[in-house]
Design brief:
This protein is α+β, with helices and mostly antiparallel strands.
């Protein structure tokens, strides 16, 4: 029973020992709002007590199986009803293309033309749940003001009633979904008259009627002949359940498409051994009429061989498609753990999750969710794989294990108390990818849970999907550890103390590629003078990073032997050409003179630096320069002398800070200068963070970013 009370804590009505509603509150509210806006299907979700999970309480207009992957959804899930509750706003999806663009996971499972609105059921202080309603594909792509206002008002009224019920400790009784139920009445009654039945029976083509669940309510003689099944074997059963050669998810998908879009749908099926039949489905809000005829010559279709024991239910396939789509978005290992928690835990109804891997012959806890005390799980990290525990057994053998109760677990593993907490049932799923075990996924249930054969098959299949995602994530994390380690080794670990100046530097890799690049910076103190360099080697890969390391070393060497700035640049240019890498590099080199407060700068195709004067004015330094390094061995690099008065800030940066697709570079440079002018008096590290944040605002960076700030200290 869904309870009302404790709303502030759980977000869902709850309480004990309370009075109950006499009428179906949710069903009536849903039916009213659907009727008000002429929607043909919808559902009401309530927040589960103590969880950030929406549970479907009532559905109307279509079988609940249509929404099976989303009967329980996490608030963080990228689906319309979760977004409406999470962001407390009206969500609109105007059609098939709109769904594919905004919610690709949903579109994979329901690739049909229909419109959808999702709204929160919430008061000012509490979110109780959410509602969605759908219209056929013929609905305009935009929601009308009237529809928006009516739906919003209806959800607000429902929220107030739930709030009032919570305050009065009243409960919601379980409510049945609202569907046009099939009645097993005689054919004549179904059609309205005996004469009408006789007329239909004389038609030369097959005709049958299906309710919203796909059950046959009427079939004429021609249809029974074409299908090869007597009427007694068809009436009251699902068409694809009673006709063996129609028991294919592809055909059931057409039925779902017709009901969801309310568009006429058709398909062609082969009746063994060689007869092709054409099926046309005419949907309405109460069911479908199906016209069956012999198809004209049909080219032989390639049919994929069915695997024994494969999923035969479209609902199962829908769930797998939805979860597979979610897992393809996972990059690192923690992304996989979070997606399993957000998508799979609500779908299967478990309360805890532990993801196990192995390293060096010992168990590794990759991640976990749902445990109040993380130490209960983490204390099993490092357990030898030779230990006889459910986790190690499944990890090493690749055989799933299901424990319906704590007693069953204790009987099979009497000396082990591996699974901590208060869970009462567990599913241990082997994660096998590329033919080898990569880990174990442990799902915990708060109450005793039976695992029938079909559920075990689905969970095991999900384990395969998780394994593939986890294998990719492990490789991704390993690659990034190597990339970050290499990048860290090639850049200075710290900046030296400079006489008369303070310095701060930042580096951010590009998000596209290997998270490693050719941007570099350095500070060198030699012969009582300080030099600074910043550069950008073409590319975002190991080759660029390796060449960057060589250039940085060369600049330090030429500086140490006392070369002038123009000579350092020319020598580095010749070195790059001699290396024969066919890569170019930009560079800016300067020599600081603390005594005079001046700097001598040489530039090779690098972005012009910014100088913030003590009065807050910022200007772009127009420096003389030469071509990019690595192009012309005889190129010269003239120098420019710039005054750096006490309190001034010099900003050296690479082009990733100001260049991004679709943004004018001059406007970006002006915005960077404005940011420097406004925040230039902040502590230097704080200023560096703010400027890098300006350049890293985009979620996807096509280029890496290097920033080096120098501030002239006041003279004593």
């Amino acid at each position: 029973m869904v309870r009302v009370g404790d709303a502030q804590v759980s977000g869902r009505p709850g309480g004990s020992g309370s009075a109950a509603f006499g009428r179906p509150l949710l069903s009536l509210a849903l039916a009213g709002m659907m009727d008000d806006v002429q929607a043909h299907a919808g559902a009401v979700y309530l927040l589960a007590p103590g969880e950030s999970v929406l549970e479907m309480a009532v559905m109307a207009g279509l079988p609940r199986a249509f929404a099976a992957p989303w009967e329980r959804v996490g608030l963080g899930s990228p689906v319309p009803v979760a977004q409406a509750a999470r962001e407390r706003r009206f969500v609109w999806v105007g059609g098939e293309e709109d769904m594919a663009r905004q919610y690709p996971r949903v579109a994979v499972v329901l690739p049909y033309p229909f419109a959808l609105a999702a709204l929160p059921v919430a008061t000012d202080s509490t979110v109780y749940g959410a509602v969605f309603v759908t219209w056929p594909g013929s609905h305009p792509p935009e929601v009308s003001d009237r529809e928006r206002e009516r739906l919003t008002a209806a959800c607000d009224r429902l929220a107030l009633r739930l709030e009032r019920a919570a305050a009065e400790h009243r409960t919601l009784r379980p409510e049945a979904d609202l569907l046009a139920a099939w009645s097993g009445t005689p054919v004549a009654d179904t059609l309205g008259s005996v004469e009408a039945a006789r007329m239909v029976s004389r038609l030369p083509y097959g005709l049958c009627s299906l309710d919203l669940h796909g059950r046959v309510g009427f079939v004429n003689a021609a249809a029974t002949e074409l299908l090869g099944i007597p009427a007694s074997g068809l009436l009251g059963s699902r068409l694809w359940g009673s006709v063996p050669w129609l028991n294919d998810p592809v055909y059931e998908d057409r039925y779902r498409a017709a009901l969801l879009s309310l568009h006429v749908t058709s398909f062609v099926a082969l009746r063994p051994p060689g007869d092709w039949l054409s099926f046309q489905l005419y949907p309405s809000t109460t069911g479908l009429s199906v016209r069956i005829t012999r198809a004209r010559a049909v080219a032989e279709l390639d049919r994929a061989e069915r695997r024994p024991g494969g999923p035969s239910s479209l609902v199962t396939i829908s769930q797998v498609l939805s979860l597979a789509g979610a897992l393809t978005e996972a990059a690192g290992v923690q992304d996989v753990v979070q997606l399993v928690a957000d998508e799979i835990m609500p779908a299967v109804g478990c309360q805890t999750l532990v993801m196990l891997g192995s390293r060096g012959g010992r168990m590794q806890v990759v991640g976990h969710r749902g445990f109040e005390d993380p130490e209960l799980v983490e204390r099993f990290d490092g357990l030898p794989l030779t230990e006889q525990t459910p986790g190690t057994q499944v990890l090493t053998t690749g055989v799933p294990a299901f424990f319906e109760s704590r007693g069953q677990l204790d009987r099979l593993y009497p000396a082990v108390r591996e699974v901590p907490g208060t869970m009462a049932a567990w599913a241990y799923l082997p994660l096998i990818a590329s033919g080898r075990p990569v880990g174990t996924c442990v799902l915990g249930y708060a109450e005793q849970h039976s695992f029938p054969a079909d559920e075990r098959a689905v969970l095991t299949s999900l384990g395969g999907l998780i394994a593939q995602a986890l294998e990719r994530a492990l490789l991704y994390d390993a690659k990034h550890r190597v990339a970050h380690g290499l990048q860290a080794a090639l850049l200075p670990s710290s900046l030296p103390s400079l006489p008369g100046f303070e310095a701060a530097a930042r580096y951010l890799p590009a998000t596209q590629g290997m998270d490693i690049g050719g941007d570099f910076y350095d500070l060198v103190c030699s012969h009582g003078r300080a030099s600074a360099v910043i550069g950008d080697v073409q590319g975002h890969n190991v080759t660029a990073a390796g060449l960057m390391g060589q250039l940085r070393t060369a600049v330090r060497a030429y500086t140490t032997v006392g070369q002038a700035p123009e000579e350092v640049m020319s020598s580095t240019n010749r070195l790059l050409i001699d290396l024969g890498t066919e890569l170019f590099a930009s560079c800016l080199y300067l020599r600081l003179d603390p005594g005079s407060g001046r700097a001598v700068m040489a530039r090779a195709g690098h972005p012009q630096p910014l100088l913030r004067r003590p009065d807050g004015q910022v200007r772009v330094l127009d420096l003389a320069g030469g071509p990019l390094l690595g192009i012309d061995a005889s190129a010269s690099y003239p120098t420019t002398e710039v005054e750096l008065p006490p309190g001034s800030v010099l900003a050296l940066y690479t082009d990733g800070l100001i260049e991004s697709p679709g943004v004018d570079i001059d406007e970006a440079l002006a915005a960077l200068g404005q940011r420097l002018a406004e925040t230039g008096d902040h502590p230097l590290d704080e200023l560096a963070d703010g400027l890098v944040e300006f350049g890293a605002g985009a979620t996807a960076r096509a280029d890496d970013i290097a920033l080096l700030l120098l501030r002239a200290r006041p003279k004593n």
